[in-house]
Write a structure and sequence with these properties.
Length: 238
């Protein structure tokens, strides 16, 4: 499907009476390969079914700090982070089924035990979480929604950030990254003007790319296209 065809469908969705809430994603259907199909069966214990309630209850050690990643794509960087941080719990939320399948496949190979994933709109999942319950929310290379009429779909916005702020613990962090310079400027403008958040790089600055954040598929694509990568880490201060 061409980009124009996808965008035409998005506009159709916007016009549907019953589709009142503007979402930040576009569901794509693509076939699963054999190992992905097998992985969905084999690693069912890693896959949560929506509605999920308090995400912490799905771990053997619910008291451990929780990281939630929104839109993990194919999931490799999330698996690497979970593997590198066994003392934390990780939940990945994605609406792309091949991504969920690939993620649990790789987590199975890496014998990662502290990761759960689910197919759902992250906004709905966050709404079900108790306030002050998440230590880290990460959003890497979110869809930039480049056309002006789609800006309302951008995840980082004054409409959606209050939910993120409510669900983070005090001292918890929101970490985003993008390779799309206009979205980077937009993110900074939104996030620097959220009174409950503090820019850990200082107002007006992006955060130096942390070496502990593994490269993602969309990041690699951005770099190959010559794009600059901007990370932003904001701490909840009130
Ligand atoms: C541009 S891709 C980036 C994927 C990955 N983070 C990477 O860097 O390679 C954005 C992903 O976010 C997912 N997404 C967007 N909004 C979402 C939401 N509200 N809940 C769950 N997933 C979402 C999309 O399905 C898509 O796979």
């Amino acid at each position: 499907m061409s980009n124009d065809q996808i965008e035409a469908q998005v506009v159709d969705l916007d016009n549907l009476q019953e589709h009142r809430e503007i979402v930040t994603f576009m569901r794509r259907s693509s076939p699963l390969n054999t190992s992905q199909t097998t992985a969905l069966e084999q690693h069912r214990e890693m896959i949560l079914e929506y509605p999920v309630g308090d995400l912490r209850q799905h771990f053997e050690h619910p008291e451990r700090p929780l990281t939630v990643e929104i839109g993990f794509g194919m999931g490799r960087s999330l698996v690497l982070m979970a593997k590198a941080n066994p003392e934390r719990n990780f939940v990945g939320i994605e609406v792309h089924i091949p991504g969920i399948a690939q993620c649990v496949y790789e987590a199975g190979v890496a014998e990662v035990k502290n990761l759960r994933v689910l197919d759902a709109d992250a906004i709905q999942v966050l709404r079900e979480m108790p306030d002050n319950s998440i230590n880290t929310i990460q959003l890497y290379f979110p869809d930039p929604w480049q056309k002006k009429r789609h800006f309302k779909r951008r995840f980082v916005s004054h409409d959606r950030m209050p939910l993120v702020e409510e669900k983070l613990e005090i001292g918890g962090t929101f970490h985003s990254a993008t390779d799309w310079e206009p979205y980077a400027e937009w993110m900074l403008d939104v996030l620097d003007n959220r009174p409950r958040l503090e820019n850990l790089a200082g107002k007006g600055n992006s955060y130096p790319r942390p070496e502990w954040r593994p490269q993602t598929k969309f990041e690699r694509r951005g770099i190959e296209s010559g794009h600059k990568i901007n990370d932003f880490i904001f701490k909840k201060i009130s």
